[in-house]
Amino acid sequence: MRLLIRWAALIVAVCGMPSWAQDAPLISGGVGLVSTTNGGATFLQPIIAPVGVLPLGDHFLVESRADLRGFIARSGGTTGPYEGEFFANLEYLQLDYLADSKLTLTVGRFLTPFNIYNERYTPIWIRNLQDVPLIFPIGTRTTGSSDGVMARGVIAGHPSWQLNYAAYFSASSTTEQFASGRSAGFRTGVYVPNARFEIGISYQRFLQNGHYNASGAYLQWQPWVAPFKLRGEYAHSPSGQGYWLEAAYRLAKTQDADTWLGKLQPVFRMQQFFRNSAISGDLLPATNTQQADFGLNYYLPHEVRLNASYSRQFSGIGDRNIWNVAITYRFLLPLARGAQ
Amino acid sequence: MATRFYSWLLLFSVLCAMALLAGASGRQSNSQTAQHSSTAANNQDALGEKKFRTYCGRCHNAPQQLSPAIAGSVLRHMRVRAMLTREDEQQILRYLAP
After folding, report:
1. How many helices (H) does chain A have, and how many strands (E)?
2. Do A53 and B23 touch (CB under 8 A)?
3. Which one of A96, A182, A211, A329 has the largest count of C-beta atoms within 10 Å of its C-beta?
4. Closest residue on chain A to B80 (Cα)
């Protein structure tokens, strides 16, 4: 609730500011309702994930994202009356200094740059499947967010390729809304714009409750000749290792086709996780697990999207079906007047 | 368990192959599009659109409506998120808010 009050105060304060040319403060993000049936237990999650952006001069930027969600489920899992809980989570609140293309310095709370899912695909209106991958906890302990400093940018650029990087240090924190693990790490990748192909690696040294390394690799490919997207990650830690590979195909010649068929996007993702030694609180599956996810997205007008997906999970502790149905809406609004 | 999983794997491979075949069949019409784009290569809008599809389109579609008052803020935000260069930021900005 305090997080809501802080967000409301920020919006009221910014709305009273004078007009901007093209850099007015904005509020963006996603709103959604997700219904999940996992192993017979059904729960609903109404979600609001607002993003606030406030440019300060030519080189500074304040950005923040929160995740506000309800969790409505039967008290006994599959039996009993429905009960609801409310969760508020501050995912990032950071000050960026954009020195030049090679260097952006960030201080505050930011999304941990390990592989690409955490930074790029966690917004509910972007992700093709509502469930995060099985290996998502690797490299993102403890909360997916880090409190500290980060440097990032394009360290070497060429018309046909770019070498990008992100390096960070995070302090340990148990403060409400700012919980994070003590860690340091980096991610670096090569992006080939002409092929829209990116490949990279990640490394993290977790520096609390026993030091250990996590490493990963990722790829992303979106060919120009078809509205097809291929994404994948591999991650390894002492807890175990695994990968996911996702393919999505928009049934249209271009991404913006308006035909009813062109608004459909079938999605398939395969995942495997191989358990090694159990580490308390690693949030990974308890045993070797394999999962196949089938999804169907339908893009409605006005930034509304329908998602439906079915997953079959094969695990040593029992196979299960996971169903998801969701509706998401993306919003993007100025918080102050633009110049006339 | 493994047999069933590899069945899923086979299905995934088939889906990927279908997608690539569909892409190949669409190549002819896309080559016409590419030819059209090449004639407008000097046009800043065309360059900005290509940059948008190159960098922003990796993760999401273009916003259906964008107020000119916040176009610069959106691009500043994405410069950090998508690690755009200053030049890319300016070209995409000219496309989104000419």
Report:
1. 1, 16
2. no
3. A96
4. A104
